[in-house]
Amino acid sequence: MAGGRMNEAEDPFLWLEEVQGERALAWVHARNAESRAVLQQHPRFGAMRDGFRAILDSADKIPQVSRRGDWFYNLWRDAKHPRGLWRRTTLASFQTATPDWETVLDLDALATAEGENWVWAGATALPPSYRHCLVQLSRGGADATVVREFDLVGKAFVTGGFQLPEAKTDVTWEDADHLLVGTDTGPGSLTDSGYPRTVRRWRRGTPLTEATLVFEGQAQDVSVSAWIDHRPGGRRTIVSRATDFYNSLQFQLLEGDRLQPIAIPSDAHIGFWQDRALLQLRSDWALNGTLWPAGSLLAGDAAAVLAASGDADLPPLQALFTPTASRSLQGWGTTASQVLLQVLDNVAGVLAACQPQAGGWVRRAIAAPHPGSLGLQTLHDDSLGSDEQADPLAEQFLLGYTDFLTPDALLLGHTDGRPLQTLKSRPAFFDAKGLQVQQHWATSKDGTRVPYFLVARQGLVLDGRHPTLLNGYGGFEIAKLPVYSAGWGTAWLAHGGVVAVANIRGGGEFGPAWHQAAIGANKQKSYDDFAAVAEDLIARGVTRPQRLAIQGGSNGGLLVGAVMLQRPELFGAVLCQVPLLDMRRYHRLLAGASWMAEYGNPDVPEEWAWIRAYSPYQNLRPGQVLPQLLFTTSTRDDRVHPGHARKMAARMAALGYQPLYFENTEGGHAGAADNAQKADMLALEFAFLWQALGEADAA
Hints:
This protein is α+β, with helices and mostly antiparallel strands. It has 14 helices and 39 strands.
């Protein structure tokens, strides 16, 4: 272990990778007790925990709904129903102040009856009748689920219906008596990443072992999957083989299970709208004399796109969206007559509509709240076709809005241009009077300008004294957007803290190019960007290193772990949540192999050279002056292995550091399985931050 740097063969903490190992769990329980003893001493710990629980259980939350036929379904958690009620109502009732909810499934009653710690993981119903439903239940919040058929008319599990044991399953309805399913059926059925390697057709009333093989990938693939575009008069079935996190070989499944390759770039996403295919690009595409830039959304005749054997056979394509230096496509949805676009403009959401007319598409802006984050959900049921008489909701959509100081609102819109109607709005959980949001730009090491949001008191005195929490992610093309956080508001901003959110490369704030600038050999750019934002906060006089904390989870946990070791002089505290940290072994732990397109392959010497340069576990050495540190993770996280946080904490302690560590025994990658666990975790985290940075100076 020369110079404190460690090779894999020297790792004395591999035993902590045994998730349920007796010795490992004893270590976890001891660390949890030590951390609680420290963090619960904060005088506001109990008040914060109770306050978070009240917010999470509040009946004033906006019920998030999804349409299935005539019904709008919601999973509701509160103090009486910590695991949740799956319930439904009509749109007309939902529009009232007190909707009439009908309980479909009581998760708490089910968990009690079966002696299981069930966590809701979603449901898939078969259109257009939506009677047959596949409910997915997770033990303790893990990604792996059990699947059970449920009757939405009888509101009961189907005796003798489709059932699948716990696995990371991919399943979709083909018709009422057939599923296309990928799951763990024994040796060879999963990829190295732990996801399905095969798609099989499973007929009702037969054992899964007799399901017919439809499609098969390779062990080194990320996964294989199938999805079906149910539409009047037929269906389109697409199967794909994800060769890495961003690339897939895609096929249309034809009669007789014949596979027709789809001649589009492997990193393009395909969807359908009536007789058109919609193609969202992640890389530039030179096609028949036209260069379509990465981040574009294109439309063309679906039958011709699916039948093409190569670029030359593809039909003419038209652009619904092309990116600019400040604008990127966040998502899209369809109504009977239009395609609606969610666009980010300098990390603020805007909404637009595209409508086909003779000679091309007409695009118009839709007036929506700004600047903040938008969440679009169109209500049209594609399985009913484009006839508005057949589907009364064919031209309507739901739009969520929030920003750092504005509680969430849910609005109902119509494509005819009528003003948006506010259906629900969340109450304010903290006093935002006197607070303001600003967007600043830092300059990274290579000269790139990197935006960040700053939430603070108006007229903030730039004397470097303010406790500041800097949050970031920077990976997998995921954007960090404005969000109303009652946690930040009540436990941080209300007590004089400042919040900063960094929009660093590796994220999706400016489309695929912003992401691809910081992957693989260039991943260090994410860390340089984050450090640049920290430097800018200090240079502006917002804070100073002793009062600056950084926070990140998952890939963001890797971010703060790496930057902590590279630039420890910038920070006073680090909150590292469900992190990746041992990048020498990440591809061998749980789903880690699926992320090699983001980071690289540690088994390839050239790629390990750039990974090793930032991998926190390998770069830890004794004698550094490091910020105070809290790791949090979950025993039931079957996506990012808890061994990352366990081993890092253990190695730091062995080298003389004193990190705090807390591992929730449930929760999966979210870290908590119910509101009580979430409230407790938040209180521990904010207690740590205040203890590490000190209380804010009196105003």
